[in-house]
Amino acid sequence: MSFKHIPAGRDVPNDINVIIEIPAEANPVKYEVDKDMDALIVDRFMTAPMFYPANYGYVNNTLADDGDPVDVLVITPYPVVAGSVIRCRPVGVLNMSDEAGMDAKLVAVPHDKLSKEYTHIQDVNDIPQLLRDQIEHFFENYKKLEQGKWVKVEGWANADEARKALVEGVEAYNAQ
């Protein structure tokens, strides 16, 4: 399978494809798709013994403020295998900054064609508060034991902001 040919989605920014790099609740290993090798590689072993509270990946053919594709956390009933592609709709954004600059994380749920379990989640405030707290806690702490690295959570933004980030990401990718 080639990651290079996976489109950003069927109807960006409302219907997107997220390439999963790290399954929810997986061992503390940071995986990343290496664009030159077109392969899922081990980026690093995380020093904090923590796991991602949701599946983590990105939208292909986008470019975020940090120079990487737009990052997305996907809330699902079960962990999704690394390297798989899941059709999603965005519901919010966790705005953050780190040692490299702005590093927003979009939050999405499976498209209604995949699961009816999330039809009631239309915006970030529809996500259970406990899960939002867990996501914030994870990102506030997952780099704490890595020398020279830090994260500051700036706060949550709504689904409109998530869609805006996707449109801007596609435009930035196409402009390069």
What does this structure look like?
The protein has 176 residues and is of the alpha+beta class. Helices cover 17% and strands 36% of the residues. It is built from 2 helices and 10 strands; from the N terminus they run E-E-E-E-E-E-E-E-E-H-E-H. The chain has helices at 129-141, 159-175; strands at residues 9-11, 15-22, 29-34, 39-45, 55-59, 70-74, 85-98, 101-102, 105-110, 151-157. The strands form 2 sheets. A 5-stranded mixed barrel has the order 2-5-6-9-7. A two-stranded antiparallel sheet has the order 3-4. A hairpin with a 4-residue loop joins strand 3 (29-34) and strand 4. 33% of the residues are buried. The model has no long low-confidence stretch (mean pLDDT 96). Homohexamer. Mg(2+) 1 binds at residues 66, 71, 103. It comes from Marinomonas gallaica. Belongs to the PPase family.
